[in-house]
Amino acid sequence: MKKSFSLGHDMSTVKEDERIVKKDIETLYLGNLATVEFDLRLPRKGKYGSKITWTSEDSRFLHDDGSVTRPKYGIGKRTVPLHATFQYGGCIKEKVYEVTILEEKNKIQVSRIYPTRLKAELGRTFYLPAVAVVETVEGEVISHAVDWEQGEERSFEEPGSVMIQGVLKDTAIPVSAEVWTAAKLEREMMDTAPAMNSFPAGAVILKPGTAFKAAQDRSLAFLKEVNDDQMLYNFRAAAGLDTCGAPEMTGWDSPDCLLRGHTTGHYLSALALCYAATGDEDIKQKAEYMIASLEECQLAFASQPGFHGGFLSGYSEEQFDLLEQFTRYPEIWAPYYTLHKIFAGLLDCYRHLRNSTALVIADKLGDWVYHRLSRLSNRVLKTMWGMYIAGEFGGINESLAELYTITHKPEHLAAARLFDNDRLFVPMRAEIDAIGGLHANQHIPQIIGALKIFQATGEKEYYDMARFFWQAVTSAHTYSIGGTGEGEMFQQPGRIGEYLSDKTAETCASYNMLKLTKALFAYGPNTEYMDYYERTMFNHILASCDHKPTGGSTYFMPLAPAGAKSFDVAGNTCCHGTGLENHLKYTEAVYFYDESDLYVNLFVPSTLHWRERQVKLMLDVDTYNPGNVSLRMEGRGTFELKIRRPYWSGPDCRMEINGRKADMAADSKGYICVSRDWQDGDEIKLFLDCRLRLEAAPDRKERVSLAYGPYILAALSEAKGYLRLPLREESLQESFIKETEQHEIAFRHVADDVLFIPLAHVYHERYHVYVDRV
Fold first, then answer.
1. Cβ contact 464:451 at 8 Å
2. Structural domain includes residue 95
3. Helix 281-302 and helix 335-353: axis angle, to 10°?
4. 116 occurs within a structural domain
5. Residue 259 to residue 256: CA distance in whole angstroms
6. 56: domain range?
7. Residue 8: pLDDT band by 50, 70, 90 thresholds?
8. Which of residues 101, 129, 151 is at a domain's end?
9. What pLDDT sits at residue 10?
10. Alpha helices in 477-550 (DSSP H)
11. Which of 147, 347, 363, 650 is deepest in the core (most CB within 10 A)?
C-alpha cells in the first residue's frame, strides 16, 4: 500500500477518513486471483463508504471494469497488476492486486490437417516435427503441437515408407506423418554469392534539408549525450563490479526488470551504425569504451562461482536455467532475446569499427551458447522455442551463423541450428502461411537467422523459407504503411481492415522486415522488394521517431481513428532499442551494385561515392513532388544505370538525359535501364507520374488509405469514428486542393475541409490513416 495524504481536514476527521479507507481495503475480497477464468466483479464503493477506482496495467487481458480476455491457448497464463485507488474524504490509498489469468482451454476444431511428408536417412537419429499444420473450422491455418506415439526420436534401418501416428497436443485428434527412408539424402544446395552488393554506410551521404537527414542528425545528437556508464550499470552490477556512480537504467532495463541489458546491445549497434554513417570520432570513442568495459564484465563473470566461461549479460544465468524447465512469461522474459541484442551489438562494432575485442567477446559468448544448448534434448529445445515470449530468442541464430562465417568454428554454426523452431519452420518449408496467431517480432528475426544459415552453408531450404515468409507477410499481413501485426500478433491472411487499433504495427517488426528485405534483394534484384522497402521506410520507420533529439520512438503506430503517436523516451522498450538504430540505416538500400550495374532503388536525396569506379552520383528529389527526380554524374565510366520504376508511378512518365527525351521502358524486374559511357556532368531527369490514389484494405474495400507517390497520407482530425468521405478513383484528383504553405506535401479535401499530410510529418496531432469512402 502507498500514497496516503489528506486535504483541509482537522486531525480527528483525517484519522476517521483513514480508518474507513483501511477497513475497506481490509474487507474487500475479490476471490481467488491466482487462477482467474471469468470476469471480476470490481465494486465502485467499499463496504464502509470509500470510493474505489480501478486501473489495469494490461488491458489486453484485464479491463478496468473487470472484464477478462483470457490468453489464447498456447500463450500461457498472464499476471496483470490491478491498481485499486480507495478514497474517503481527504484520504486516498492505493493497493495493487496481482491477477493471474489462465490461458484458454484447447477448444480447437479441425477441418483439415495438412500432410506431413518427411525424408530420413538410414542409421541416423531422426526427429519428427514438433507441430502439424492444421486448418480450423473457422478457416484459420495454424501450426499446432503434436504428441507422437513413442516420442519424436526415431532411427530407421530399412528403406521405404513408414507411417507414424500421433495426436494433436491436448486433444484426441489423430495426426500422421509419412516418412520416406533412404541410405543417403542429399541436401539441395544453392550458390551463396549474392547477385549484387550494397555500399558501405560511409559511401552514401544523406543531403541536408530532408526529413531523413534530420532524423539521422537527431540520432547523432542523442547518442552523444547518452551516459555510457548508465548503459553499463546492469552488466557491472551483475558481474560484481563498481557501477561508477552511474544512475540505474529505467523501464525495461531497470534493475528489477527481466529484460535488462537489451537496450545496451542496441546502443552498441547504434554507435557502430552512427560512426559508419557519420565518421564522428566521439561516437567511435564511446563504442570503444563500451566494448572495453563489457570485456571487463565478461572476465569478472568467469571468475565468479556459479557462472560458466564466456557468459555476459545484465543478470545471472538463472533465467536460462528456468527456461530449460519451461517456465513461462512473465516469470521469465526471453533471455536469449536479450543475449541476441548483445551479440548483434558486438558484431556490429566488429563490422563497422573493426574492433577486435568485440569479436573476442562474441567468440567466447558463442562458445557459452553452444556448450549450454548442445547438452539439451531435441524435445527440450523445440519446446523452449515454441513458448510464447519466454522462448523468444530474437535473431540469435543470425548472430551465431554470422559469427561462424568469421571464426569458422563448427560449434558456432551448430549453435545457430539449435534454434531451428518447428512451429515456424515446418509450415514455411511446406510454403503454407500459418503465421496467424504468432507473435510477429518473435518470429521475423528467426527467418533472418534462417537466411544467414543459408549464407553460411548454401542449404537452399533456408533461403526458400525466408523467401516464402517474406512473400506471405508482404502480400497478406501488411498495413498500407508497411507495418504488420496487431497487438504484436500476426492475424490471419488478409485481415487488415478488421484490425485497426491503437496497437497496430509494432516498430520492431518493420525494423526486422526491412533487414530481411534488404538481404533477400541481394539475391533477387526485383522491384517488389524495394517497393515494399520504400513503403515501410517512408511511412513507418521515418514516422516513428520523436521530432526532438530524445531517442524516442513509437512502440505501436496507431491506425485506429484519431490515433496519436506516443514516443518511448525512458521506457527502454524493444522498439526504443531498434529505434536507436533505425534512423542511422536510411542509406543502406538506396544504391546497390554488381560488376557492371549500378542500381538506384530509393529516391532519397543523397550523394553516392562509388570509389571503385571513381564516380559520384548525386540524387535529388523535388520537395513538393516526389515524382520529380534528378541524377547527376561526377566522373566517367561505362556501366548500366538501373533505376527502379516505382509501383506508384502512373502511365504518364518521361525521362530526359542531358535535356533530351530518352526511353524509359522497364525491364522484367521493374528497372529502367540506361547503359552508356557516362561523362562528367551527365544528368538524368525523371518525371514520374505522381498522383493521388486510394489503397483499400483487402477485407474492407470501403476502408481506404489516401496516398501520394511513396507517401501514405494521414487526415488530421480528432473525430472518434472513421471519417466518411466521398472518394472515387475517377475524380480523386479533382476532390483535393494541394497546399504548400504550412506543409511541403498537403492536400485538402474540398467538400469536407479535411487536411491530409504524410504520416511521417505528423507529430502530436491526432490522425486517420484509414477512412471510409462513401
1. no
2. yes
3. 130
4. yes
5. 9
6. 11-101
7. very low
8. 101
9. 75
10. 507-521, 527-536
11. 347
